[in-house]
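Design request, tokens follow.
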């Protein structure tokens, strides 16, 4: 009989597998299909939809991305990865919650493609931002979200430089895990800078929400940057391969089934 801990672990691993597909396809179409990458995030899911059994893959991604988001929210609520409750620990936990929100949004986009074959107009991020701007101090909120993403970008770069992500990976992982993980984190740092800067401009200036970038949009915006674009796209593909390794070797905190309370043990 499968216990709660094992179910939780398998769901999170499906989440890492879904993230692997997402980033690998993103990097691949950036290098090979200018038309699709110009569509932003919709282009990613449209490319996946065209795979053999693409709709089934999209449904797997819906479940996986929701599971991954839940994993990140558990980090905020229950500190399942033992980040602590000091300022640095809370910073990491809040960052994980932000990742959870982002992956829920991606899950919703995958769901729209899986159910209707289209992602709609593709301006969901702009619509959400317009809603934020309509409230008092909404511009400040967007601007601060942008600042938070720049901080997250610095954290991604630090992880790539120091390799401290390796302590959450079980023994037996391929010997090149450290190298491809570092390349992937550096590429994500670049993308986070682009998205964060777009939020800062939308929130703190009168630039308008239509320029706010999602994951695919951020990569597309680098298309005229020569080797920076190529290296970022290649790094995102490597981050997809890294996520695939994590789907097998990531150390997942276990659910504490000794009580009915939502406790976890690392």
């Amino acid at each position: 009989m499968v216990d709660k801990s094992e179910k939780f672990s398998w769901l999170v691993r499906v989440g890492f597998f879904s993230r692997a597909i997402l980033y690998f396809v993103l990097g691949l179409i950036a290098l090979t299909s200018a038309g699709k990458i110009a569509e932003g995030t919709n282009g990613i899911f449209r490319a996946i939809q065209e795979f053999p059994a693409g709709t089934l893959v999209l449904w797997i991604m819906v479940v996986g991305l929701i599971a991954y988001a839940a994993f990140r929210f558990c980090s905020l609520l229950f500190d399942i990865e033992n980040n602590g409750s000091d300022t640095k620990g809370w910073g990491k936990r809040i960052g994980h919650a932000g990742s959870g929100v982002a992956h829920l949004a991606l899950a919703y986009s995958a769901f729209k493609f899986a159910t209707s074959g289209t992602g709609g107009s593709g301006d969901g991020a702009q619509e959400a931002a317009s809603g934020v701007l309509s409230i008092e101090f909404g511009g400040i909120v967007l601007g601060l979200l942008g600042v938070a993403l720049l901080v997250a970008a610095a954290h991604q770069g630090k992880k790539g430089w120091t390799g401290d992500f390796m302590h959450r990976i079980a023994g037996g992982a391929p010997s090149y895990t450290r190298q491809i993980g570092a390349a992937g984190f550096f590429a994500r740092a670049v993308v986070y800078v682009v998205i964060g800067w777009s939020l800062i401009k939308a929130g703190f200036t009168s630039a308008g929400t239509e320029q706010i970038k999602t994951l695919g949009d951020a990569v597309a915006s680098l298309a005229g940057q020569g080797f920076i674009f190529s290296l970022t796209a290649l790094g995102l593909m490597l981050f997809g391969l890294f996520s695939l390794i994590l789907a097998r070797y990531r150390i997942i905190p276990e659910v504490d089934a000794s009580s009915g309370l939502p406790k976890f043990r690392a």
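Comment from the thread starter after seeing the answer: thanks! Residues 87-116 form the longest helix (30 residues).
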